[in-house]
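> call design_seq(struct)
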């Protein structure tokens, strides 16, 4: 058995949410390269493959060619100019997605040295819901949660009370 004692609150909540909707025998395509959370999913007993790191704004072929049960996208869509193409390309009927929420007291993350390592936008829940609906998805369940950081200051204090992440389980709308 694995221990659910991760360094980030969001990992615990995300795994609990995933386990609520996705069985261990499901095959998962996790958008983005291998990352700490895809390793957690594997350790928890899931069969997970990741995309290779191609720019999903320009090339959705890895998503389109996936022959499995569920697509996950944990904190990836904020790095895309438009998540719509990726959402539209998903061939299976289930997805679990999380995005960072837009905070009134902090700007979106920007890294001037690496354009792939920045947030083009952060979301309000209605914005993710809207793009999901437009791409043919229905949100079945969602949660919002805080993720405090161990730092001093006004912003770290506000992170104890202000939701930072939005996590959804959604299903494809039959046409």
């Amino acid at each position: 058995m694995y221990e659910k004692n991760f360094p980030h609150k969001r990992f615990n909540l995300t795994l609990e949410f995933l386990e609520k909707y996705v069985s261990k025998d499901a095959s998962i395509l996790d958008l983005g390269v291998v990352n700490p959370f895809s390793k957690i999913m594997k350790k928890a007993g899931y069969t997970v493959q990741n995309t290779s790191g191609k720019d999903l704004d320009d090339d959705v072929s890895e998503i389109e060619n996936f022959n499995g049960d569920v697509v996950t996208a944990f904190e990836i869509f904020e790095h895309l100019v438009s998540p719509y193409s990726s959402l539209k390309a998903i061939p299976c009927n289930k997805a679990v997605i999380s995005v960072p929420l837009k905070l009134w007291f902090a700007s979106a993350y920007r890294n001037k040295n690496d354009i792939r390592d920045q947030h083009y936008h952060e979301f309000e829940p209605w914005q993710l819901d809207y793009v999901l609906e437009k791409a043919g998805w229905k949100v079945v369940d969602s949660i919002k949660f805080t993720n405090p950081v161990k730092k001093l200051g006004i912003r770290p204090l506000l992170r104890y009370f202000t939701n930072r992440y939005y996590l959804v389980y959604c299903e494809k709308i039959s046409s």
